[in-house]
Amino acid sequence: MLPEIIDYFQITSAEAGVSVSFMWGCNAVAQYPGGRYADRLSAGIVLLVSQAVMIAGFVLLSAATLFPLFVAGLGLVGAGYGLFEPAGFVLLRDLFEDHRGRALGIRDAAVNLGSALSAVLAAVVVGSVTWRDAFLPVGVLLAVVAVGTHRLNRHDYTVSTVGLDLRAVCGRLFQSRRTYAVVLVLSVSMFLWQGSASFLPAYLQADKSFTALEATAAFAAVFVVGMVTTPVAGALSDRASPLWIGVGAAGCGAVGLTTLVVADSLVGVGVGLFAFAIGLTTIWPAMYVYLAAVLAEETMGGDLGAIRAVYFAVGSLGPAYVGTAAARVGYPAAFASLLACFALTAGPLWWLGRQ
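Above: the chain sequence. Below: its structure as tokens.
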């Protein structure tokens, strides 16, 4: 819905990119507290709080008639999602000691399913009512999920003050070149993901002559591909090195992005999007399996939250970069420049795999 939102508020693609970057910046800030509280209290209470914050954000978005209110709503959604992710990871860690890769792959498939459904919702809204009408149903669905989360919770809710202890977690994590390599891979992957996904429909409309409905359908197709590939990548990561799976994902994504940029035919664009989607989505379950194997069980939530805070902070710059580059040199050049991201992920993954 970004093109319609840009027209409604009369803003530039650069300003739109900065607003989306703000959302992911708030997400990054909330990551470590979400993981730390999930470790020290319970994942259940953090999940409920995160859902309440997201509900407030979607309600605000549904009522936003001024751009600052829209940005504030994005900030709440980002912060709530930032709390949710590491708490969900802690919950999966507790539930699945065996076949953790498969569980994480299915989890990522569910994320892709939700993203595909949101794209369908956006297509319906753009074709019939205003863009604001898309957000209230999401808030209502989240309220239903929050009730389900409460009913399925198996532990008591404990509320107390928990020190963040940032110095200890940084001292524990950032002591080796391996950690820096992992953070680099995840940061660049998130930068690529946020930057490309935020403007993919706009790029397809501006440069590939797609209609708004066709661009949204192509956007949804990226997540449909992810629904299939992420469980496969997760299951393979249980049996083989997840690092080499990540290298393969980077190579496939680079070929796909190159094809997408240079293709003029519908078939060429489709093939490029398919390979690009594989590269974008399959690296995540592989890296989560690797992190689950190397992080200490008792501090996994906080440690993962700290790592996620770093790479989401870097990734939040992706939409601002692509939006600004598109405004200055055009969408094709902006997307072509993202090819460097695949090289910056494949290199460290190759090095880690040889250690």
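The chain has a mean pLDDT of 86.
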